[in-house]
Amino acid sequence: MPELPEVETVARDLDARLCGRRTLGVTVLWPRTVQRPAADAFCAAATGRTIERVTRRGKFVVIALDRSDRLLVHLRMTGRLLLEPADAPAGPHTRVVLALDRGERLRFDDARKFGRMLLLRGDEFATFSAELGAEPLDEALDAAALARRLGRRARIKALLLDQRCLAGVGNIYADEALFRAGIHPARAANTLARAEWQALHTALRSVLAAGVDYRGTSTSTYLDALGQPGRFQERLLVYRRAGQPCPRCAAALARAVVAGRTSTFCPCCQRLPAPSGAR
After folding, report:
1. Does the annotation mark 3 as catalytic?
2. Annotation says 261 is catalytic
């Protein structure tokens, strides 16, 4: 699933190319892709609108329209937003098409049909955004604030993936950040010391920023808005590398299911402390 760096890359690509553009029409080929309003109302409301900006909130691409409306796109597992000539043939997995001025269109493809689009009017976006967690690259989120948000009894990996705690982090960057910070993914968050929160904060910001710089991670289906893969997969240290040598100590990387997701970690560099009271 595309995470913060991938969604940020798509949003930046589209922002550079769509600001000031106008939508001429909307075609929905798979109605369940549109979460709200109903497909017919969605098409009518999104037609004849000026695109003012394209940004990101968590894992959502946010297309700001005139009159303070927002068109949100969640790519989920296999969703792609592709900007292309208007006469390009539709693909077998095309779900929604926005016809644009200047002879182009914005096509939403989604092989597995998990992606979603929704149109929010006016103040609805503020309410929607308030339900998401903090942005991990926000300067206001320092190590102490991260500890306050995540310092619970739950496993740290589960909390990193909880979009109500942090918005945008997924399996790839959680594994990479925890490895860099030397923290086991199954560690109870409320057992982390201040220095460990600082290490996690630094690692998380570093790996997410690098992911953006390298235009995302393409380990499966992710492509940017121009149809090109990211390059951060070349710099992954642990994700999907179970059984390979740890880049720090050369021990075999391990795999375990944590918070319902496969996690890769080093059992030597990321030790799980013994339970309290253990001898």
Report:
1. yes
2. yes
Nearest alpha-carbon partner for 50 in 81, 12, 19, 28: 19
Active site residue 185: no
Give the contacts of 195 (CB within 8 A, at least 6 positions apart). none
- Identify the active-site residue in 2, 5, 136, 185: 2
CB burial of residue 279 (10 Å; 0-12, 13-18, 19+)? exposed
Which one is catalytic: 3, 8, 104, 176?
Answer: 3
Q: What's the token pair of residue 30?
A: 């798979």
How would you write the pLDDT of the chain (279 residues) with one tens digit per residue?
A: 799 999 999 999 999 999 999 999 999 999 999 999 999 999 999 999 999 999 999 999 999 999 999 999 999 999 999 999 999 988 899 999 999 999 999 999 999 999 999 999 989 999 999 999 999 999 999 999 999 999 999 999 999 999 999 999 999 999 999 999 999 999 999 999 999 999 999 999 999 999 999 999 998 889 999 999 999 999 999 999 999 999 999 999 999 999 899 999 999 999 998 776 544
Active-site option among 57, 59, 80, 205:
59
Q: Catalytic pick from 76, 240, 261, 267?
A: 261
pTM (global) more than 0.85: yes
Alpha-carbon distance of 17 to 12, in angstroms, equals 9
CA 143 to chain centre: 21
What letter represents residue 128's amino acid? F
Start-end of H helices in the chain: 4-18, 39-46, 124-130, 143-150, 156-161, 171-181, 194-213
Contact 163, 131 (CB under 8 A): no
Q: Which residues pair with 167 in a beta bridge?
A: none
